[in-house]
Each structure stands twice: as C-alpha cells, then as structure tokens.
C-alpha cells in the first residue's frame, strides 16, 4: 500500500470517527439536558476535557504515543483561546435565538476562508466556493428558523465566530509548524482548556440558567449519563484534532454541518422530534453540497499530487546538471571568491501551503 493510499485511509478513518463520536455525544447530551434537566453545558465541557487529559496521560504512561514538548507559550495561548471560544459559543446560544445561533455557526466557514486567504495566502477555487455555498444554503434552510437580534447577543456571536476560526486554524498550523501529532497537541493543550472552562463554567452556566451546578441533585441516572458523555468526549476531542490536522479547518466545518444534518435525522427517527419539508429540503441540499465539495477536493488533491510527481524528477535532474539549473532559474551561487571559488547549487524551494486549495 502506497503512502498516499495510507493517508487517504487515515483521513477517511478520522472523518468517520469524528462523525460517529459527535453524533453519539449529541444524543447523550440531549438526554442529559432535555430529559434529566442537567443544563450546565460549559461545566460539562470542562469535565470532558479533564477526562480527556487523564485518558491521554494513561495512554502516555502505556507508551501508546510519545510526548513531544514544544513552544509552551504557543500551547498555553492555543489552549486558553480554545476554552474561550467554547465559552463564547455557549453564551451566544444563551443570549440569542436558536435561529441566530445557527447563523453564527454557518458564518464560521466563510470567516475561516477569509482569514486563511488573507493571512496564509491559501487559494480556494471557484468550484470549492460554489460547493460551500450550496452546503451553507442547505444547512440554513434546514436549521435556521427565527432571527431575533439583540446587541449583546450579536457581539457575543461575532466574538465566538472569530475565536473559533482562529483556534481551528491554529490547530492545523501548530501541528504542521512544530511537526506534532494531533494526540501530542491535544495532550499538551487540554489542561489549559480544562482550567479555563472549569473556572468560568459555573459562572457562565449560572448566568444562563439561574441555577447552581453544585446545588444540582445528582441522581444515579444523571451521573451515568455524565460519565458516558465524558467517555465519548475523549473520542470527540481526539477526532477533532485529528481531522483538522489531516485536512483543513474548512473541511472540519463542512464535516460539522454533516453532523448537524445527521443529528436532525436521528432526532426525527429515534426521538420523534418535529420535522417538516424545510428540514428535509435543507438536508438534501446540504448533502449535495457536501458531495460536490468532497468531489472537487479529491480532484484538486489528485491534480496537485500529479503536478508534484512530475516536478520532482525535473528538480533532481536540475540538481545534477548545473547548466539546467541555470536555465530553470534555481541558480548557481558563488561564495564570492576568485577563480577558485566554490560553486553551490541552490535547491529550489516552494511553499506547499501557498497554493493549497481546501
């Protein structure tokens, strides 16, 4: 099996794990919040991260992965930013209507595309832009209902979108820059995320629900679903970093909207949630957008791979022949000495991310 085939299988596995674990935790949390009345979402998320860190620490102790320390300031900033983005998303949901919150989530994709275009010079083809437009239209039809606006809610939503986009871009950038795996990054950033939410969680939950998380009556059923939710969250957190590291923040957001459609469908089939023609039409349009996006991404990835494979032999040949090197513009550099100066062939350098099309 070639390296490219192994990468494709790994990507498919990461995407599948992300979908299954995310849909599972949504169903579990819906039972916990809607049925059992445990509405402390931010505090629950902090517990998720604490359990994830403990699980990864056990995995490290069992030598299932290697600890690779890197820039501590980058890790701390990334972890705190991730925690803040989660808290802002919860506040956005609390101070806005459900419809406006869904619009906030939809805005993450175009915001990510804009940030990556401006600061990372990534190019998104018209085909990719077209497929993303179809996807967003479908999810909007399926999920957006009312759009009640208020100043505080709008500001919180704007901050939530910006911090979420930056955090997800950082997830991809840090893994590539420091050459760390998703597991290594998650292990080092988890404590900062957990502490940020553990400190702010009870306050935010109290502000949104007018209840005290520590005064809640924890029955055996509530404890069971909390433990189950925390265990599933290990897979959710791991697959999130894995998907963003193997693909891109935009692809992760596309996958997130697929999860939204699946949750709507599961809610109708399993929980008998209300469903109408708008939900059905929106899901169908969104699925078409996802299929088109996946197809265009696959085609463009294959094109880039073929271009790279044809360029490499030319690069190697130009390194062997100084005359060809000059003709190709790679240059023959002299150390500035006289006739006895040593000549050095400058190897061509290109940025593999510059022309990347997500």
Automatic annotation (TrEMBL):
Q: What is its main location?
A: membrane
Transmembrane ranges?
A: 12-33, 45-62, 74-93, 127-145, 151-170, 222-244, 278-296
Q: How does it sit in the membrane?
A: Multi-pass membrane protein
The record's keywords, sorted A to Z, are: Membrane, Transmembrane, Transmembrane helix, Transport
According to the entry, every stretch annotated as the Sugar phosphate transporter domain falls at 21-294
Give one GO biological process term.
Answer: transmembrane transport
Could you tell me where this protein is found in the cell? Membrane
Q: Where is this region: Disordered?
A: 333-358
Top-rank taxon of the source lineage equals: Eukaryota
SUPFAM superfamilies documented for this protein: Multidrug resistance efflux transporter EmrE
Q: Which InterPro entries match?
A: EmrE-like, Sugar_P_trans_dom, TPT_transporter
Under the GO molecular function aspect, what terms does this record hold?
antiporter activity; UDP-xylose transmembrane transporter activity
Cellular component, GO annotation: Golgi apparatus; membrane
Q: What is this protein called?
A: Sugar phosphate transporter domain-containing protein
The species is Brassica campestris
Its lineage opens with: Eukaryota, Viridiplantae, Streptophyta, Embryophyta, Tracheophyta
């Amino acid at each position: 099996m070639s390296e490219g085939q192994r990468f494709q299988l790994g990507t498919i596995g990461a995407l599948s794990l992300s979908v299954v674990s995310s849909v599972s935790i949504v169903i579990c949390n819906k039972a916990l919040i809607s049925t059992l009345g445990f509405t402390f979402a931010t505090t629950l998320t902090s517990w998720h991260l604490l359990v994830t860190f403990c699980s990864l620490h056990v995995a490290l102790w069992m030598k299932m992965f290697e600890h690779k320390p890197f820039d501590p300031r980058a890790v701390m900033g990334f972890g705190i930013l991730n925690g803040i983005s989660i808290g802002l998303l919860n506040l956005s949901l609390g101070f806005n209507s459900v419809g406006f919150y869904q619009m906030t989530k939809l805005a993450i994709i175009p915001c990510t595309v804009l940030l990556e275009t401006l600061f990372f010079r990534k190019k998104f083809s018209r085909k990719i832009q077209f497929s993303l437009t179809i996807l967003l239209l479908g999810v909007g039809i399926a999920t957006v209902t009312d759009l009640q606006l208020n100043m505080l809610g709008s500001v919180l939503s704007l901050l939530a979108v910006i911090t979420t986009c930056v955090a997800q871009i950082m997830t991809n950038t840090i893994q590539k820059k420091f050459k760390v795996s998703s597991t290594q990054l998650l292990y080092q950033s988890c404590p900062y995320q957990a502490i940020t939410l553990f400190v702010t969680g009870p306050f935010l939950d109290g502000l949104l629900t007018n209840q005290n998380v520590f005064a809640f009556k924890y029955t055996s059923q509530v404890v069971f679903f909390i433990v189950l939710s925390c265990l599933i969250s290990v897979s959710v957190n791991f697959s999130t970093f894995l998907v963003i590291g193997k693909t891109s923040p935009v692809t992760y957001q596309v996958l997130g909207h697929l999860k939204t459609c699946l949750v709507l469908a599961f809610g109708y089939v399993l929980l008998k949630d209300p469903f109408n023609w708008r939900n059905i039409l929106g899901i169908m349009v969104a699925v078409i957008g996802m299929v088109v996006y996946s197809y265009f991404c696959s085609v463009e990835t294959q094109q880039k791979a073929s271009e790279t494979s044809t360029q490499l032999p030319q690069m190697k040949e130009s390194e062997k022949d100084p005359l060809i090197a000059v003709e190709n513009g790679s240059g023959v550099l002299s150390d500035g000495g006289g006739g006895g100066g040593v000549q050095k062939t400058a190897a061509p350098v290109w940025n593999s991310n510059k022309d990347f099309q997500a």
